[in-house]
Design goal:
Helix content is about 35%, strand content about 20%. With about 180 residues, the chain is an alpha+beta fold.
Length: about 180
């Protein structure tokens, strides 16, 4: 079972007895989702790609916040910066095709990964991306209460007409307890 952003925001608002600013709750939700996406298994996903003879760059999914791993076949390719590749070989972009040993990010398109060296064979579904997933509406229900209390901790700590430091601390402690309970 999943919940939407609106349902989680409404849950937080109901817990606060409507003493919360919806724009602040929305900002808190967005920050928390980004942080969870980078640190929690429910926010990980994978996608296959097909390494193609003579093709160095591959797009990864738009829903990815951060690319965590790139595989060519069963081998995880370490990341190298363009400067590291240039230190190894000044003409690294023009190197002979072979089996890729590292990946870097495209100079031209931030949503693309470049394999080096360029693959010399086409392998159907021979590649995989593992990435932190941008989730906005299909949040597992077991995370909802934890998210709501995190949002309220930020809301009650924020200088506004609703500021209540004791309530902010209580909400933060409850969120921390729920986070440990659900294991994220």
């Amino acid at each position: 079972m999943v919940m939407t952003r609106t349902q989680i925001r409404n849950l937080a608002d109901n817990l606060a007895h409507s003493k919360a600013d919806s724009s602040t709750l929305e900002d808190s939700y967005n920050r928390l989702i980004e942080k969870l996406a980078l640190t929690s298994a429910p926010f990980l996903d994978d996608a296959n790609y097909t390494p193609t003879d003579g093709t160095a760059e591959y797009s990864y999914p738009f829903t990815a916040i951060k690319l965590l791993a790139v595989f060519h076949g069963a081998t995880q390719l370490p990341e190298a910066t363009p400067k590291e590749l240039e230190a190894y070989d000044k003409d690294w972009r023009a190197a002979a095709e072979d089996t890729p040993v590292v990946h870097t990010f495209s100079d031209r398109d931030a949503r693309k990964v470049r394999l080096w060296p360029t693959p010399s064979t086409t392998t159907s579904n021979g590649g995989k991306f593992i990435y932190a997933l941008r989730r906005t509406s299909d949040i597992p229900v077991y995370l909802a209460l934890m998210l709501a209390f995190h949002m309220l901790a930020e809301e009650f700590a924020y200088p506004s007409q609703w500021q209540d430091k004791a309530m902010a601390e209580a909400c933060a402690e409850m969120a921390k307890l729920l986070k440990a309970f659900v294991g994220v």
